[in-house]
């Protein structure tokens, strides 16, 4: 089992202290992922910037959740699946969507399922998709902008999912009730 250091404001490099203070203020705690990422101020800032940019895309709360959780589940991230389950609840995303994503089952909403399918294809195939994949996505009501926005979300999730795999980041207390592992699906 691998681990990386989980910093707090006192132990973090100077370049990460302000970002950790922002996390503390925003969440009422420092999420474990942020504590780990803070060992590299540039990586931590990149993650925070990508997160902010992704939340400003054309996607609504359900669509953000579909992209995040599809990637989290495919990457088998023990930390991000529970965290984004809690975040989805805070964003008032229907629990049936979250449960389907956690269980890798198709979504009832055809448009959201098209988003899940293309996100999964891009993630699994490392960006290699065919015209049929895109045509199905466009037929569901999405466009080229949303293809690129999936890639933005994937960029954010690669940072967090891979970091959590290497760090074996403990799930934060508020999200422990939503514990998840790939083996239980």
General description of the model:
The protein is mostly helical and 185 residues long. The protein has two domains: 14-54, no CATH class; 60-184, Up-down Bundle (AhpD-like), CATH 1.20.1290.10. 63% of the residues lie in helices and 0% in strands. It contains nine helices and no strands. The protein has helices at residues 14-27, 32-37, 41-55, 61-74, 80-90, 95-102, 110-124, 131-139, 144-167. Helix 3 runs antiparallel to helix 9. It is globular. The model has no long low-confidence stretch (mean pLDDT 97).
What's the SSE pattern?
A: HHHHHHHHH
Shape estimate: globular
Mean pLDDT, nearest integer? 97
Rounded to the nearest angstrom, the radius of gyration is 16 Å
Alpha-carbon distance between the termini?
22 Å
CATH architecture of the largest domain: Up-down Bundle
| CATH top level label of the largest domain | Mainly Alpha
Name given to the CATH homologous superfamily of the largest domain:
AhpD-like
Poorly predicted parts: none
- What's the helix count? 9
Total domain units? 2
Largest β sheet strand count, sense and barrel closure: none
Number of beta strands? 0
Which secondary structure elements does this structure contain, and how are they paired or packed?
Blueprint: H1 14-27, H2 32-37, H3 41-55, H4 61-74, H5 80-90, H6 95-102, H7 110-124, H8 131-139, H9 144-167
């Amino acid at each position: 089992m691998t681990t990386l250091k989980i910093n707090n404001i006192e132990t973090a490099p100077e370049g990460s202290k302000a970002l950790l203070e922002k996390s503390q203020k925003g969440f009422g705690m420092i999420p474990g992922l942020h504590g780990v990422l803070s060992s590299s101020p540039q990586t931590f800032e990149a993650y925070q910037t990508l997160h902010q940019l992704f939340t400003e895309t054309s996607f609504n709360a359900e669509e953000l959740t579909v992209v995040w959780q599809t990637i989290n589940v495919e990457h088998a991230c023990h930390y991000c699946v529970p965290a984004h389950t809690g975040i989805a609840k805070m964003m008032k995303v229907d629990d049936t969507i979250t449960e389907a994503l956690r269980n890798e089952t198709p979504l009832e909403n055809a448009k959201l399922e098209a988003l899940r399918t293309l996100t999964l294809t891009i993630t699994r195939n490392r960006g290699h998709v065919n015209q049929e994949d895109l045509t199905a996505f466009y037929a569901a009501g999405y466009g080229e902008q949303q293809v690129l926005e999936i890639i933005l979300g994937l960029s954010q999730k690669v940072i967090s999912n891979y970091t959590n795999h290497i760090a074996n980041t403990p799930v934060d207390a508020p999200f422990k009730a939503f514990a998840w592992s790939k083996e239980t699906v």
